[in-house]
Each structure stands twice: as C-alpha cells, then as structure tokens.
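Most newcomers find our protein records easier to grasp once they have seen one. A learned vocabulary of local backbone shapes supplies the integers on the structure line. An example says more than a description, so a record of this kind follows:
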Amino acid sequence: MQRIINALLAFKNDVLFIALLIFSIIFLSQRSYFHQAQISKINLYLTGHIHETKNNLMHYFQLRHEIEELIQENLFLKSKNLLINESEFTSQLNSPFENGFNFSIINSRVINNSHQEKRNFALINKGSNDGVEIEMGVIGANGILGIVNQVSPNYASVISILNLDLGINARLKNSPSFGTLRWIGKSPYKMQLNDIVGTTNLTIGDTIVSSGRSTYFPTGISLGTISNIKKPNTQGYYTLEVTLFNSPIEMENVYILKNTDREEIKSLIEKNGQ
C-alpha cells in the first residue's frame, strides 16, 4: 500500500492532470451539445475499432478450422469431378481398366518444386503416415504434377512431369487416339505428345486429357491444348506440341490419387504379359 502511495506522490502532477482532463471532458459533455456529439463520435470510433480488432483476432484463430472444412469440401468436389470425367470418356475408350478404376484422394501441399533441371522433382507434405505410397499419381486443380517415387513418414518425393524420364499416357478429348506426353526440356508450359496415329482428325486448339491407360491417373484429367502439329512424311504418327493449362511450377495445393485396384490391375497385366 505504501508503494502505491509513494507512486502517486511521485507522479502527483500527472495524476492531477489526468483527473482534471477527465473531469473537464465529463463537464463539457454534460453542458455542451457540440462537445457531447464530438465525444460520442470518438467513443463510437474507439468502440468500433476495439470490436473490429476483437473479431479479426477471433477470425484468425478460427481460420485453421475453416481451412480444414474447405479442404474437405474440395476433396469431395474433386472426387466428384474425377468420376464425372471418367464416366464421360468410358464409352469412347477400349481400356481394360475403365470399369474398375476406383480412386481415393489425399490432399497435400507442395513445399519444394524444381523446374530448372532436366530431371525435376517436387516435395509434398504428406507421407506414409497419411497413406501415401510409391507410384501414386499427384494432380493439381487442372493438370498433373507427377508420380510419387519416394516416401518418408511425413513427406513424399514426386517425379515431376517436367522430367525427361517421365511419360504420361494422354489422348485427345474428342478422339480415342492416344499417345505419350513428355516434356522436351524447354518451357515448363510446353510438352510433346507422340504416337498419335496419322489418320486422326485433329486441329490446333484441341484439348489433351489423361487417357486412363495406367494405374496412376483416371481418364479425362485436362492437361492442355495442341499448339503445334508436325507429321513427318516418313512416319505415320503425329508429333504434337501441347501447351499445358496449368504448369507444375504453379501448383501449390495438390491431390494424391490412390488407386484402390492398382495391385489387382498390375497382377492381371503381368499374367497377360503386357
């Protein structure tokens, strides 16, 4: 108590000034309509600012929960979208996988992504603890990132499609003709689609999608459009330049695809010697 009294005595001038200031404000607010209005404005501003700060803080702490809800909603919508795309192309394909191609989806985020080498890789923040396994496909909102090649408990390495060693089975959206989509080591937005039969009817601007002829990706994932057509006179196949809708270097939030029938499909392929 003595310390409080000593502090008040030490700052008696300041305490007196504040007390007189408060008294003056109260007196003016009661005696003058003008000052009363000004004080009300100040009070409204301070009250509004305090409540806004409080709401922002509450929203910040609730943000993680909202993000988790959005992620789950995106997973549901992505699953529906993949199913719709696959159904759309089923009648056009002659694939041994089209009637038993079931996927589950794991959300993830790209935490490192190279694109300046000839053989590029990405690192994602989900691993074996989350159910990620080698040879799972990884896609973005509108395109393919690559295929998982290494897994640790909490992370996974992905062979990017910007890797000269990786080829993706792809086809024309409006034709059953299919081939292999590869990066040619130049622009991260440009790929090359080979082995499309020369009798195929195609034009610049046609859409290229995943063919579904592998255990990595379902049918109908949009990849890009034809930007150049080359058909050598000595061969019966087109060489197509494809401009990607979404380059892997732009992908941050991604989806890991788990084919629940992968082992069964691989076993049948091995038995058939394919």
The helical segments are 2-10, 12-31, 33-90, 262-271. The two ends are 91 Å apart (CA to CA).
